[in-house]
Amino acid sequence: MSMLRRIKKEGQRPAQTRQQPRRPQQQKSEVRVRRQPPSPARDAYYDLKSRVQNKLISELDPTMDVTKTDEVRRTIEEMYNNILDEEHIVLSRSERQRLFEQIVAEILGLGPLEPLLADPTITEIMVNGAKHIYVERKGKVIRTNVTFESDEHLMRIIERIVAPLGRRIDESQPYVDARLADGSRVNAVIPPISLVGPVLTIRKFFKIPLTVEKLIEYGSVTAEAMELLKACVLARLNIIISGGTGTGKTTFLNVLSGYIPHDERIITIENAAELQLRQEHVVTLESRPPNIEGRGEITIRDLVINSLRMRPDRIVVGECRGPEAFDMLQAMNTGHEGSMTTIHANNPREATARLENMILMAGMELPHRAIREQIASALDLIIQLERMRDGSRRCVAITEVQGMEGDVITMSDIYKFERAGYEGGKVIGALRPTGLRPKFMEKIEAAGIKLPPTIFGIGQGGRRRF
Fold first, then answer.
1. What is the Cα gyration radius of the chain?
2. 231, 239 contact by CB (below 8 A)
3. Residues 6+ apart with CB under 8 A from 94
4. How far apart are CA 54 and CA 211, in angstroms?
5. 261 preceded by cis ω (within 30°)?
6. How far, in Å, CA of 68 to CA of 4, rounded?
7. pLDDT of res. 126
8. Are strands 393-405 and 266-270 parallel, antiparallel or unpaired?
């Protein structure tokens, strides 16, 4: 079935749903959502929109290539004007344009979400059922006045997102990870596990990837710290970026990956492809969920194991969250230096503990000391990110993994964020060097990279600068 035929099939649903009596199950769902009764004017507008939209879709050529957006848009606009004239529908210029844009968004895009996706100041879109849509702007979450017509309308948009990726969402698989064409991350959850109707979360990604200069300008990290991290990437240190949800781990990983030399073969492995590497020799692998029969699943762990047979110079895993951590550490320990990944943890110590738990999830019946020794020998650096109370995302620690002391992994902070207070709704503080020279400097110097002592906060006579 072509995309336009599927749109035609979808386009008939609003009118049919509106005419059919509601089933008891639908009424129960509406009670949970606590929707406000629609106004007569709002109902009249939606009736007009559905009528014009359905007639327009029925008259469109099903063989039309909808990927040629400008051409399709001109065709739709011509047909739209003819339909309004034929049915003697009188609208003001602003109403006419508004209705046209909404119908185009339904046919070519994601309906009511299109204006939010086009807004560059919005970083995240959170849809909690048809009538409650929130966005994150400048680190703050606010509610919008945008709504869907119904839960069925929202479900059609979710299906439009996941269908081209070969993924599904239904009662047997009520949640799914996906991505938009621009690389934005998507998660959808539907009843019965969601009690407020379909829930859609979109983590928008910059169309132009965030640069090192922007990170420094935003105060996320200092120029000195980035100079050190650049040297670490070039010297092929193994790096983990740690942080909570929404701290900017993937963005930071993307920026660090930009330092990988262009003559190296990079294998990226993700659940939903998000990384935007600019190097030429990049192979992107994406995991796959099981099909409706429960077969055909390809996990991150499968891809990590397979990547070792693909002659990688670097392996970049979008996120370690399970048994794949064992294979990732094995790769780091067996000649694949310079690998990078992210992990959910609140501090560097917790990051190593989570890695230990993930290795146990892989079914490896190893003594805890043996697991810790493998972590200590594989990892060189942990970069800790945090989302501050003012909504800003900051690098709060750059920590070296030094080795083992007894049964404990020893670590040392090379940079640490020093908080000075909270003024005017902003967190005051800076990422500062601790004055310690890391042991991995031997690897950096062996790569022919020279860093001034001031990078580590050491001035003349071995004194710290502050």
1. 26
2. no
3. none
4. 44
5. no
6. 12
7. 96
8. unpaired
The identity of residue 451, as a single letter, is L
Q: What angle do helix axes 3-11 and 93-108 make, rounded to 10 degrees?
A: 120
How do residues 247-292 score in pLDDT, each as one tens digit? 889 889 999 999 999 999 999 998 877 788 889 999 999 888 887 7
In the chain, what percentage of residues exceed pLDDT 70? 85
Tokens matching residue 235? 């010297």
The alpha carbon of residue 43 and the mean position of all alpha carbons in its chain are separated, in whole angstroms, by 36
List, as own/partner pairs, every contact residues 447-450 make where C-beta atoms lie below 8 angstroms and the sequence separation is at least 24, other chains included: 447/231, 447/234, 447/235, 447/236, 449/231, 449/234, 449/235
C-alpha to C-alpha distances, 362 to 165, 247, 422, nearest whole angstrom: 28, 27, 43
Q: Six-digit token pair at 321?
A: 């969250």
**Residue 17 DSSP label:** H
Chain centre to alpha carbon of residue 382: 21
- The secondary structure of residue 109, as a DSSP letter, is S
Centroid of chain to Cα 238: 23
Measured between alpha carbons, how far is 279 from 273 in angstroms, rounded to an integer? Answer: 16
3-state secondary structure of 64: coil
Q: Which amino acid is at 376?
A: A
Contact in structure between 320 and 253 (CB atoms under 8 Å)? no
**Structure tokens that stand for 84 in this block:** 């309004």
Give the helix ranges, DSSP H, for 218-323. 223-234, 249-257, 300-307
Residue 382 sits at φ, ψ, to 5 deg, of: -125, 125
- Amino acid letter at 167? R
Place of tokens 């169309």: 207
The rounded distance, in Å, linking the Cα atoms of 340 and 408 is 23
**Which of 246, 146, 133 has its CA nearest to residue 196?**
133
Q: 233 with 440: CB under 8 angstroms?
A: no
DSSP output for 314-344? EEEES---STHHHHHHHHHHTT-TT-EEEEE
**Two structure tokens written together for 450:** 């020279």
The answer to whether 64 and 72 are in contact (CB under 8 A) is yes
Query: Would the pTM count as exceeding 0.85?
Result: no
Nearest-angstrom CA–CA distance, 174 and 170:
5
With beta carbons less than 8 A apart as the criterion, state whether 441 and 453 touch: no
Rounded to whole angstroms, the Cα distance separating 116 from 384 reads 30
Tell me how far apart the alpha carbons of residues 280 and 263 are, in angstroms, rounded to a whole number: 8
Strand order in the sheet with 199-203: 140-143, 133-137, 122-128, 199-203, 185-189, 175-179
Type of residue found at 431 = L
Per residue in 2-38, pLDDT (tens digit) is 445 554 555 444 434 334 444 444 333 333 333 444 5
